[in-house]
Amino acid sequence: MSKGYIVKRAERLRKEMAKTGTDAFVVITDEGFNWETLYYLSGFRGTSGALVIYKDSAELILDGRYREQGER
User: Fold this and answer.
1) CB within 8 Å of 65: residues ≥ 6 apart
2) pLDDT for res 1
3) 0.85 exceeded by the pTM?
4) How many CB atoms lie within 10 A of CB 27?
């Protein structure tokens, strides 16, 4: 997936967050549940991880199994 798509999706989400006064948006994937949302917003396809989107930054949190994939 193109990084451009991911950046645009995050920008749209941040605009919605600003409208509602939301400080952070958290997506958690555990053993494959909710992986589609994490993939849509980050491009990460693993079965476990979390994404936190803030107004100025984002953090992808993964365990060691996904280090290489997460760096992409």
Assistant:
1) 46, 48
2) 64
3) no
4) 20
Number of H helices, E strands in the chain: 3, 3
Amino acid making up residue 8:
K
Cβ atoms of 13 and 27 within 8 Å: the answer is no
CB 22 within 8 A of CB 5: no
In angstroms, the CA 45 to CA 15 distance is 25
Q: Decide: 35 and 69 in contact? Cβ < 8 Å.
A: no
Residue 23 to residue 20: CA distance in whole angstroms: 9
Domains (range + CATH), the chain: 3-62 (3.40.350.10)
At 70, is the pLDDT very low, low, confident or very high (cuts 50, 70, 90)? Answer: low
